[in-house]
Amino acid sequence: MIGVYQILSASREITMNRRTFLATTAAAAAAATNRRTFLATTAAAAAAATMKAASAATVTPFGQTGAPTRSTGPLPLGPLPGSRYPDSHLESAKPKLSFGPNDFPAFAGTMAVERVATGFRWAEGPVYFPAGRYVLFSDIPNNRIMRFSEDDGHLSVYRQPSMNSNGNTIDREGRLITCEHSGRRVTRTELDGSITIIADKYNGKKLNSPNDAVVTSDGAIWFTDPVYGIGGFYEGIKAEPEQEKHNVYRVDPKSGDIKVVVDDFVEPNGIALSPDEKKLYVIDTGFTDGPDNPSHIRAFNLDVGAGKVSNSKVFAEMPKPSITDGARCDTEGRVWCSVGWGDPNEDGVRCYTPEGDLLGKIHIPETVANLCFGGQQRNRLYICGSTSLYAVYTSVQGAMKP
Ligand code: MG
Question: What pLDDT, in 10s, does the model give residues 238-261?
Fold first, then answer.
């Protein structure tokens, strides 16, 4: 199998080289033709105008926060080393008594964790588009959104500059919802490709740096607004926060009004919905700001009709100094979350029962930021782990409403 993957990798390299050559040739041909150059410039200007019109208040050079280069040499694609079945990257919380990890629904038997794409600086915010069978995810420092097509493993740039986008999700109409650091806003990409600002201010002041979002069945958009994206020039544009608190917001689907739904987070980060929409999970990564701050997931009772949450509880504590950055639910209400930044043995994914009991872990050889379910049967978990995108088939399906 290793030989096959080496051949596949080599074949990809050749394909890439050919593409690079073709792109270079095309660029040279365009430069030699004034009319084509003019048309290309006009098209670029039109695109820029659309973005500018969408946010008149933003003036910083969004394209200069990162160069689209690999952070390391390319890591090998395919199953991770040591993936003899049953894959040792899967660890059940309960002792193994029989075939496979007990009670841990990650275990689908003849499966292994695979690295399906690599070469990013900080992969974040994956979202799966079932109609196109692709995953979009942010490469925040490189200021781009990537697209991984699962039919042939093709990887390409979906958007650049991406305004240092972070979390992405999909609404009920199949439109992309994106949280932007340097844009300091939440946007929706319409079906015709135009971009609509969903939220960029609260109380007349700029948002901090929207991080992650979910959309409830009524069309309301809920998002978190910590300050990570304005702390420096690497993942956004450095700026002073204008919001007094780091809030969780809700944007009303009819009026477009933005309201604070929770205001007592240190750093609200990942956000996820239970499949019945009765629970809203919000991660607090305040630990990044000080050792006594939280590193946990909170669960709220969610009233979609009223647009409110109540009864805040700590759902799961993370093993400090590790933090979780993102989470998704499966159809049975289990919570799957990322883990990273601490003990390398904890890097990867954790799976909890709806009651908050740990069922098992998926070990990943890089710090993990976020994850989403995908695949035609929604049984493939896509995992953004630092420089790479990983995937693993599970024995469950992701909730239909991400
Ligand atoms: Mg996040």
Answer: 999 999 999 999 999 999 999 999
Distance 127 CA to ligand 1 centre (A): 13
More confident residue, 72 or 174: 174
CA of residue 225 to ligand 1 center, whole Å: 10
Distance in angstroms (rounded) separating the CA atoms of residues 295 and 304: 26
Number of domains the chain contains: 1
Query: Cα(338) to centroid of ligand 1, in Å?
Result: 10
CA of 268 to the centre of ligand 1 (A): 8
Q: Do residues 283 and 269 lie in contact, with contact meaning Cβ atoms separated by under 8 Å? A: yes
The answer to the question of residue 142 being in a domain is yes
Task: Tell me if 101 is assigned to some domain.
Answer: yes
* Mean pLDDT rounded to a whole number for the chain: 86
Contact 196, 178 (CB under 8 A): no
Q: How far is the CA of 101 from the centre of ligand 1 (A)?
A: 29
Residue 38: DSSP 8-state? H
Distance from Cα 85 to the centre of ligand 1, integer Å: 32
The pTM for the full model equals 0.84
Structure tokens at 291: 């050792």
pLDDT at res. 48: 43
Mean pLDDT for 46-65 is 49
How far is it, in rounded angstroms, from Cα 36 to Cα 165?
A: 31
The answer to whether 316 touches 299, Cβ cutoff 8 Å, is no
Distance CA 339, CA 349 (A): 6
| Distance from the alpha carbon of residue 369 to the mean position of ligand 1, in angstroms | 7
Is 356 within the bounds of a domain? yes
Range of the domain at 221: 80-393
Ligand 1 centroid – CA 208 distance (Å): 13
74, pLDDT greater than 90? no
Q: For residue 283, what is the domain's CATH number?
A: 2.120.10.30
Answer yes or no: is 195 within a domain: yes
